[in-house]
């Protein structure tokens, strides 16, 4: 004979209250996530899907009498067969390889300096951050004057320091120096953002850790290596990923100062894409370039993240 268990009214009430509590919590979490999900959908996912759809067509910039037709992967095939695209990809990879240590190193060193108890520290932080909020167009005009050949300020300084032994350098007109000049300009303009991120990371490290290290007899270098560096691991990852993404978007400096020259030595993927879309009016082709660039940056960001996790950085 099977005995049926009876449920008391109080137990039923508690279960109903727990279900209402869980439902309310889920609704609250969904409401908190909704703005982020909507913004990501509107400004990231939908544009990417539209770009991918356009990349599969021969969509022109200005509508023509002939209808737009699907060309499937022809745009991608033509891009991969274009030597100028590979040159642009090599150039932007070279720029990224140079800009990461230059910009991040300068930002890290400046942040360490401004984290100390210096007089007028807040004023100095504002001054060092000033280039980051200055328009890139203005920065390019200023640095274009500094790079002027053969009588610009940089060449005059080099001539003065070397006593005339170093000949004037055509910073933007010589293929050997053009990309290096863009690296200098870009690192100076943008390092303020990474500096602020590093300052926030430094301020998040508890002072008690430094006090404990001092009590244990650690010198300044050991405190830096065993307290500061481990405390900045998430900051390093964020700065590395965001700098890589910014580097692959290199465009304004190229468009204003070199237009991809000389001899395509500063041609970048974004400049190549904009020229295809707006000068040659091939929106489908330009969209295919943007999709390829998105995939490249995504793969690099994922690889960086995995490597940093593997090496516990």
Fold and architecture overview:
There is one protein chain. Helix content is 73%, strand content 0%. The chain has 13 helices and no strands.
List keywords for this structure.
313 residues, 13 helices, mainly alpha, flat
Q: State the total count of DSSP E strands.
A: 0
Distance between the termini: 65 Å
Rg over C-alpha atoms, rounded to the nearest angstrom:
27 Å
Biggest sheet, open or closed, and with what strands and sense? none
Beta-strand percentage range: under 5%
Spans where pLDDT lies below 50 across 5 or more residues? none
What is the arithmetic mean of pLDDT? Answer: 89
Provide the fold topology.
Blueprint: H1 9-55, H2 74-80, H3 83-114, H4 121-129, H5 136-146, H6 153-162, H7 175-203, H8 207-215, H9 220-231, H10 233-248, H11 252-258, H12 269-279, H13 283-310
Helix pairs in contact: 1-13, 3-7, 3-10, 5-11, 7-10, 10-13, 12-13
Quick structural overview:
This protein is mainly α and 313 residues long.
């Amino acid at each position: 004979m099977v005995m049926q268990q009876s449920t008391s009214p109080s137990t039923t009430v508690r279960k109903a209250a727990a279900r209402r509590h869980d439902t309310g919590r889920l609704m609250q979490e969904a409401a908190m996530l909704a703005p982020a999900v909507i913004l990501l959908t509107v400004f990231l996912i939908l544009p990417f899907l539209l770009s991918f759809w356009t990349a599969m067509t021969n969509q022109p910039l200005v509508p023509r009498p002939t209808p737009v037709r699907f060309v499937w992967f022809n745009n991608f095939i033509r891009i991969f067969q274009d030597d100028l695209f590979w040159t642009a990809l090599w150039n932007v990879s070279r720029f990224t390889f140079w800009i990461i240590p230059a910009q991040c190193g300068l930002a890290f060193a400046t942040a360490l300096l401004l984290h100390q108890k210096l007089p007028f520290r807040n004023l100095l932080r504002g001054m060092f951050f000033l280039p980051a909020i200055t328009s890139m167009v203005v920065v390019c005009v200023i640095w274009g004057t500094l790079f002027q050949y053969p009588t610009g300020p940089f060449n005059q300084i080099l001539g003065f320091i070397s006593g005339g032994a170093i000949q004037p350098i055509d910073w933007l007109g010589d293929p050997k120096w053009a990309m290096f000049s863009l690296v200098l300009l870009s690192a100076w303009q943008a390092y303020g953002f990474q500096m602020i991120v590093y300052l926030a990371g430094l301020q998040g490290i508890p002072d008690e850790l430094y006090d404990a290290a001092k009590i244990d007899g650690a010198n300044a270098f050991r405190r830096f290596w065993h307290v500061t560096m481990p405390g900045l691991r998430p900051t390093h990852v964020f700065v590395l990923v965001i700098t890589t993404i910014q580097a692959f978007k290199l465009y304004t400096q190229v468009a204003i100062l070199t237009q991809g020259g000389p001899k395509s030595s500063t041609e970048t993927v974004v400049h190549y894409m904009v020229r295809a879309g707006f000068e040659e009016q091939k929106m489908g082709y330009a969209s295919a370039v943007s999709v390829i660039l998105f995939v490249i940056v995504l793969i690099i960001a994922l690889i960086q993240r995995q490597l940093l996790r593997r090496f516990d950085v």
